[in-house]
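Please describe the entry underneath.
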Amino acid sequence: MKLLLALALLGASTSTTAVAQATPIGWHQCALNANDAEGKALDEAGAQCAELEVPLDYTRPNGPKITLAMSRIKATGDRIGALVLNNGGPGGPSLSAALDRPDVMGTVGQRYDLIGLDPRSVGRSTPIDCKLPFAGWPWAGGSTRASYAESVAIQADVAKRCTQNAGSMLQYINTRNTARDMDQVRVALGEQKISYLGYSYGSYLGAVYLQLFPGRTDRVVLDGPVNPQTFGPRLLQGNGAVNEDNLRAWASWTAARNSTYQLGATTREVLASIDRVYRHVRTTELEIGGHKVGEGLLPMLLFVSINDDRETPRADAAVLVQSLVKAIDGPVEPRADLGELLDVILSPTMSQTISAQTAIVCGDRAAPRDPQVYWRDIQTHRSREPHYAPLTRSISPCAFWPVQPQEAPTKIANSEHALIVAAEYDPRTLYANAATLRKSISNSRVLTVQNARKHGIFGEYGNTCADQKVTSYLISGNLPAMDESC
């Protein structure tokens, strides 16, 4: 208990040491070589890049170091300060985040130095790689004990590979240490305060930073808010119902366009087409573009595809489902986007990203170790969440993780300022999370985008009202007097 208390206080104490030891940042061009597309894009945008050494273990500030990779695009106008960006994940790189969402970043970048930062273990920041043969988490538990046992074996294998290939790093990869890293960046930049824009997991990282380092932020935007009370290995556990609702909404949209997609003329008929695919994969895998899609993968394909209520994403999802239905009758060659998605999921391409994501989640909160806990949860919710419970409630590698979290989860309870941006029907982070975070950060405000079924709003959804309100806050520093809606 004393050790945990000491570590909890470390967030506030380590930065004092960092101020005294701060060294100038050695900015340089971003491209590492002729094949570095990300670095070239940053260079073309006028960015500079740098590396910053930080402690691997903040209980040993003079011990082994790791390297953080960061970028900066200087403000082009009357400078307010530095805006640190995080694209979420967890495990998502953010070195080139300033190049994303150009419609809003062009305006914001006039007033801020835009700071991209790959979090520890991610991208160029001393990355870990568990050498995973495919993106095996999350993976659905299926309909039978046999299919669930296969999912359990996949998760155990992920944990085993991470133990073998990154074991010495795992105990130091968590959100609290990433927040401490952010404060080291603040110090290195010479800023008394930083501003912050975080999406999805980045909202949780921002909340943890506010808790560990009160008074060190200026303007904070948390978009797609995560529930700080539940973030961890079971972060998707409560998402089944909203995704079932999201699926029905997409099915209604698709039914209205039956002449184009021929998946059914009513919502019920479109859902019946999907159910037909689900029944088929219980016994026979689909063959699509040289890949096989079974019970473990099918819910994930729907989860990542039917998650955005704009016209183009909904149309893309309808074409994807068309390919799934056609594959019932034999092998099919998919449209390029589905083929590329399967190529990415079923190859080592995402190994580094999934490795970092898993390590962060497992490092923040302990998971139940008994596989039967997850099987019972799936069974309890299967009738109400038939398409998604086997995915959102299934087991993760954290059930087999070789190390336990080194600190207790961060309790968010402070009076800092933040603007929380939330979609009413967000399929990834529940809308109720906004109220929870609003209560935890007492001087925050919530900006709700009504009727939106999209995860990530500012600069992504195309809602002019929301983009203007967030931009206005970042430029003026004035939070709304009360919660607002668009």
Notes: Residues 98 and 114 are 6 Å apart (CA to CA). The longest strand covers residues 414-423. Residues 1-21 have pLDDT under 50 and may be disordered.
